[in-house]
Amino acid sequence: MISKALDYAMRSMVYMTAQGDNTYFGVKELAEKIQVSSTYLGKVLQSLVKSGYLKSTTGPGGGFALARDPETIKLIELIECVDGSRLREKCILGLTECSEANPCPIHETWKSCRSQLTDDLSETSLAQVIGKSWPQYR
Questions:
Q1: Which of 2, 19, 44, 68 is at a distance of 20 to 30 A from 76, taking alpha carbons?
Q2: Domain spanning 4-137: which CATH class is it, in words?
Q3: Which one-letter DSSP state was computed for residue 67?
C-alpha cells in the first residue's frame, strides 16, 4: 500500500526524531541505521528538504537533519508529501476504474476504512510515534 519512497521517508524521519534535535546524519550513515539503499535514500531525503521537512548542509559534520519540530509534523503530511493523495484515492483492489460512479466490490468498506485512517494520520504527529517506543531506533 505504501511506496518504497514513503517507506524510506517514514523510517528516516522516525529515526532522526528518535535521535534528538539538530543532529545531522550523512546519507550512508542513515541508510545503514535504517537498513536501506543509500542511493535511493539520498533522493528521498532531497525531496524532504525541498518540502521543508528536512534541512541539509555540506562538508564535515554535514548531512540531513529535521527542519521542523516533530510535534508539528502530522503523518498525513509526510504521506501526501511523498506519495501525493494516493492513500485517499487508490482502490484497495488496485482497479483503475474504481470510483463512486463505478465502485469495486469493496468500495464502500474501503472508503470508510480510508476515512478513519486519514483522520488518525491527521491527528498523529511524528513525535507521538516516537512516544510509542521504537527501541530499535534509539
A1: 19
A2: mainly alpha
A3: -
Element (H, E) at 127: helix 126-131
Give the C-alpha separation, 45 to 51, whole Å: 10
Q: What is the CA radius of gyration of the chain?
A: 17
Beta bridge pairs of residue 65: 55
What are the sequence ranges of the domains in the chain?
4-137
* Residues 54-66 pLDDT 10s: 999 998 888 999 9
CA angle 36, 38, 43 (to 5 degrees): 110
Q: What is the pLDDT of residues 8-57, one digit of tens each?
A: 999 999 999 998 877 899 999 999 999 999 999 999 999 999 999 999 99
